[in-house]
Recover the amino acids of this structure.
């Protein structure tokens, strides 16, 4: 899933300070799963904005709506008809959400309510970590099913570097050295010889380095 | 300031705090009128939104009264409540509201006195802080 | 003897079978050319080549190729260090050509410390290619006369290609294979991380020799003298992939007030002596960090002077 983190309440309060009518728009996709942008969080943020406004003696009407998904125009269309009642929308979907809303409703001011972090998963309840860098050419099968591009701090394809310490990355004791895990796994799988093979420089054309990406699947285009 | 009576919402766990309430009745001690008690099956059921809503609706303070950490009927209910209260404290602070306006208390089933004492303690503290919202 | 790969002094010294002795010099955090020249002068005549670090520990300094040129003006041979953190493959290749064109003949290929360690932690890193691929790139340019995209170049840069090896980082069992991989990718010489745990290094070298790696590349053992107990503790606890045995810390502590630095130097001299005898070790890379003025005395006491002229 796409994992996001809420912006601070102060930041959000300041963002919508000039407005009297604000809609908090959630998304039932990834951000609901990672407990940051679903209906529950919409209600909490809306309540917090109301309390803060009241405390400051400010008039503020806060609407709440959680879309099926914010990354599909047909669901963004759910806002049709009532979005015009608001001066601003805080989207608490991933970075895709505010943009889809902006594109569909160009006259409304849209604010991001979360900071999109990474593509990853839940290690435990309340703990998420990155797994994929979206490089466009998946190679995890060469590395014991693990991705050094997303998970090595230096994206080394021929790791590990000299900073690997007790299974942890040199940048932080909180970060696993993925190369430590890759090496151990490949050795366990009797695949040391594959690991010793030189991995040539990667083509980043399919990654973000190749420019903004677009995908067209002819068989699906109507 | 002394005229001000804070409005308080108190979430009481049905397992321990409510028994304490019964004990307190026996002791002829009662909650003050400014404290509105909400029974919950477990303090772990109290969500962040439940803790915020009272403030939105005009309460001056909120507290959760649950079990001792080692005697929660549902094992981790009270620790969940404790973490959520801590989270809401942070949110209140961010909104410029005193974090002491929300607390969590650990009660035991037999502690009828404490049941009322915390209500009085919160009332006094909030009386000193004054109303949360401007007049 | 066949033709040299680069014709650098370091290559000639190693090829002729001399026990090499290299030094290190960090460029200034600014344009203090005079200070750099002064540090360099201490090393003159004491070492076969001087490593010039490239924004080491991710702290911005005078560029390593520019500092290398200044060292050349002082009559020293630089070992130009390059990290993959700050350059993509375009900048890497053009800098290699540029450095060679200005007379630089040795180059050490490194991944580079993560920028979060340094003084610009907000920076975006590059890591377009890794150190292994950098080694491969320099060799490809030299031996095939081609860029990474396989396009021919007019005059190829002829560098003596170095790589680093950390025998102490984990996973330990893989380290010697990683060394083999670097040599396979094109490393002509290896400079190791500073060694303090001699037993563990001996074990590492035994494995390297068993694999015949010492016959494919020159392995220089890394030595950094301990200046103080504080430094030893810092190295032991704070520097990832560093193995400082308790016995050494104890020994330094036991040296007594004012004598710790001398004890550190003594230990390093004993190490050099051991490396001279150790199978597969072709030289020592002596990293006297901000202690360049001590190097002449240390080299003298180590018995590595005068340096050979080949």
């Amino acid at each position: 899933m796409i994992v996001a983190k809420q912006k601070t309440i102060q930041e959000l309060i300041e963002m919508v300070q000039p407005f009297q009518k604000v809609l908090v728009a959630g998304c039932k996709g990834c951000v609901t799963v990672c407990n940051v942008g679903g209906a529950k969080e919409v209600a909490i943020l809306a309540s917090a904005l109301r309390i803060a406004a009241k405390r400051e003696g400010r008039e503020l009407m806060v609407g709440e709506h959680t879309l099926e998904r914010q990354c599909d125009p047909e669901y963004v269309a759910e806002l049709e008809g009532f979005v015009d009642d608001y001066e601003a929308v805080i989207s608490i979907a991933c970075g895709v959400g505010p943009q889809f809303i902006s594109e569909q409703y160009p006259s409304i001011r849209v604010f991001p309510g979360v900071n999109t972090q990474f593509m990853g998963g839940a290690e435990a309840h309340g703990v998420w970590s990155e797994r994929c860098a979206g490089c466009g050419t998946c190679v995890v099968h060469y590395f014991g099913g693990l991705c050094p591009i997303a998970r090595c701090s230096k994206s080394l394809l021929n790791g590990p570097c000299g900073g690997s310490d007790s299974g942890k990355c040199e940048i932080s004791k909180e970060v696993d050295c993925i190369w430590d895990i890759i090496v151990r796994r490949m050795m366990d799988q009797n695949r040391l010889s594959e690991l010793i093979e030189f991995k040539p420089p990667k083509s980043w054309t399919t990654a973000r380095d190749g420019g903004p990406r677009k995908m067209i699947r002819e068989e699906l285009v109507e | 300031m002394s005229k001000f009576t804070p409005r308080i919402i108190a979430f009481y766990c049905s397992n321990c705090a409510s028994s304490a309430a019964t004990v307190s009745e026996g002791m002829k001690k009662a909650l003050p009128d400014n404290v509105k008690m909400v029974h919950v099956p477990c303090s772990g059921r109290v969500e962040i939104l439940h803790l915020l809503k009272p403030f939105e609706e005009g309460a001056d303070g909120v507290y959760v009264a649950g079990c001792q950490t080692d005697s929660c009927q549902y094992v981790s209910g009270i620790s969940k409540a404790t973490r959520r209260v801590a989270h809401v404290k942070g949110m209140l602070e961010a909104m410029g509201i005193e974090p002491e306006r929300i607390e969590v208390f650990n009660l035991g089933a037999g502690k009828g006195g404490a049941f009322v004492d915390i209500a009085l303690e919160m009332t006094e503290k909030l009386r000193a802080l004054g109303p949360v919202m401007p007049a | 003897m066949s033709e040299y790969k680069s014709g650098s002094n370091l290559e000639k010294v190693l090829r002729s079978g001399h026990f090499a002795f290299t030094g290190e010099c960090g460029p200034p955090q600014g344009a203090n050319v005079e200070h750099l020249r002064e540090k360099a002068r201490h090393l003159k005549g004491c070492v076969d080549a001087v490593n010039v670090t490239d924004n080491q520990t991710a702290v911005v300094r005078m560029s390593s190729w520019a500092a290398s040129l200044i060292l050349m003006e002082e009559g020293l041979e630089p070992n130009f260090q390059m990290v993959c953190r700050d350059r993509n493959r375009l900048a890497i290749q053009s800098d290699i050509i540029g450095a060679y064109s200005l007379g630089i003949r040795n180059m050490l290929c490194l991944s580079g410390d993560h920028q979060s360690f340094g003084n610009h932690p907000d920076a975006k890193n590059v890591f377009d290619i890794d150190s292994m691929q950098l080694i491969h790139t320099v060799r490809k340019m030299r031996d095939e006369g081609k860029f990474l995209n396989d396009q021919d170049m007019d005059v190829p840069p002829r560098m003596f290609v170095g790589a680093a090896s950390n025998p102490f980082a984990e996973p330990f069992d893989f380290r010697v294979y990683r060394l083999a991989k670097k040599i396979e990718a094109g490393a002509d010489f290896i400079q190791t991380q500073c060694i303090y745990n001699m037993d563990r290094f001996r074990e590492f070298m035994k494995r390297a020799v068993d694999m015949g790696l010492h016959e494919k590349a020159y392995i220089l053992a890394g030595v950094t003298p301990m200046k103080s107990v504080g430094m030893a503790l810092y190295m032991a606890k704070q520097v990832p992939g560093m193995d400082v045995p308790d016995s050494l810390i104890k020994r330094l502590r036991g040296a007594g007030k004012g004598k710790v630095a001398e004890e550190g130097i003594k230990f390093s001299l004993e190490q050099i002596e051991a490396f001279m005898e150790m199978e597969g070790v072709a030289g020592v890379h002596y990293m006297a960090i901000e202690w360049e003025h001590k190097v002449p005395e240390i080299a003298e006491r180590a018995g590595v002077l005068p340096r050979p002229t080949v």
